[in-house]
């Protein structure tokens, strides 16, 4: 069994997941990272097929630079066996899981569809990739954490699940299908808190706001969102996740709630120099 605490971070080939994995390694964690893209240079956007930076190999290298041990696990949210195998591989390698960051989301067909264009097959994929896959991970991880005396669950949620969009999808807003799945997933951490908080489970919903990730830039959608929202970078959200995980004396007042990552990083001064002055 690893002598260091262990985190499992999904969707960690780039973006928020990568930032969180690196920050947790810097905080003393060994980190298992899971995603579809294993190797830098092989990632593609789901809609246009454009190349997108990132790979688990580069994330793992950064984890090692921060002093942590990295485990790379190929995982596809629509492949339930690979999802369950990610948790199993982490436990086999390290013997424990102290933190689960449910960051990966489904990014295939249907995500950007207007209501009348969304068929039930794509809606089923959205729910599998944004709700059911995460629940499958939790069904494995929560009992392990309870048996160990506790652990931390960080579920990445979205304002799309509880706010009205400022425009149609494609014009700076979000789709109904995506919003429905994020609304459902947003109820998971609060209920975990009610059901298992007294067994040491620290459950948080983290709302990142608009984040300028590699994929957002590669798909060309950043400018439309920027018309309505001020962007943050992935390291801002990664720092919030690190704070939630490593500073229970301060963060536990937020257990079971939605944590607005950009707001907490700003008001607590968690990342020096952020936010930058408005131009």
Give a brief description.
The protein has 279 residues and is an alpha/beta fold. Helices cover 43% and strands 13% of the residues. A seven-stranded parallel β-sheet has the order 3-2-1-4-5-6-7, sandwiched between helices.
Output the keywords.
279 residues, alpha/beta, Rossmann fold, seven-stranded parallel sheet, 11 helices
How do the helices and strands line up, and which of them pair or pack?
Elements: E1 6-10, H1 15-26, E2 30-35, H2 56-65, E3 70-74, H3 80-94, E4 99-102, H4 120-148, E5 151-156, H5 176-185, H6 188-196, E6 201-207, H7 214-218, H8 222-226, H9 234-246, H10 248-251, E7 258-260, H11 261-268
Helix pairs in contact: 1-2, 1-9, 3-4, 4-5, 9-11
Task: Give your account of this protein's structure.
- By secondary structure, this protein is α/β, with parallel strands linked by helices.
- It has helices spanning 15-26, 56-65, 80-94, 120-148, 176-185, 188-196, 214-218, 222-226, 234-246, 248-251, 261-268, and strands at 6-10, 30-35, 70-74, 99-102, 151-156, 201-207, 258-260.
- It has a single domain (6-268), classed as 3-Layer(aba) Sandwich (Rossmann fold), CATH 3.40.50.720.
- Helix content is 43%, strand content 13%.
- The chain has a 7-stranded parallel sheet with strand order 3-2-1-4-5-6-7, with helices on both faces.
- Helix 1 (15-26) runs parallel beside helix 2 and helix 4 (120-148) runs parallel beside helix 5 (176-185).
Figure out the total of helices: 11
N-to-C span: 50 Å
Give the helix proportion (percent range). 40-55%
Radius of gyration: 18 Å
């Amino acid at each position: 069994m690893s002598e260091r605490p262990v985190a499992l971070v999904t969707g960690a080939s780039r973006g928020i997941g990568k930032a969180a994995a690196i920050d947790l390694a810097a905080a003393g964690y060994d980190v298992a990272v899971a995603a579809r893209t294993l190797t830098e240079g092989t990632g593609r956007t789901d809609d246009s097929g454009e190349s997108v930076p990132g790979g688990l190999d580069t994330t793992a290298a950064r984890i090692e630079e921060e002093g942590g041990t990295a485990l790379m696990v190929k995982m596809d949210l629509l492949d339930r066996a690979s999802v369950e195998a990610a948790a199993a591989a982490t436990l086999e390698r390290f013997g424990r899981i102290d933190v689960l960051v449910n960051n990966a989301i489904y990014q295939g067909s249907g995500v950007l569809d207007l209501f009348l264009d969304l068929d039930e097959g794509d809606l089923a994929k959205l729910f599998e990739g944004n709700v059911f896959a995460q629940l499958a991970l939790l069904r494995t991880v929560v009992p392990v954490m309870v048996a160990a005396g506790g652990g931390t669950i960080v579920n990445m949620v979205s304002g799309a699940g509880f706010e009205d969009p400022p425009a149609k999808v494609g014009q700076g807003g979000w789709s109904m299908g995506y919003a429905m799945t994020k609304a459902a997933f947003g109820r998971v951490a609060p209920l975990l808190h009610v059901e298992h908080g007294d067994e040491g489970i620290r459950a948080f919903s983290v709302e990142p706001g608009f984040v300028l990730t590699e994929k957002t830039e590669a798909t060309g959608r950043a400018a439309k969102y920027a018309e309505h929202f001020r962007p943050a970078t992935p390291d801002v959200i990664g720092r919030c996740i690190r704070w939630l995980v490593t500073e229970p004396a301060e963060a536990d007042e937020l257990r079971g709630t939605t944590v607005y990552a950009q707001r907490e990083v700003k008001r607590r001064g968690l990342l020096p120099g952020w936010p930058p002055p408005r131009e």
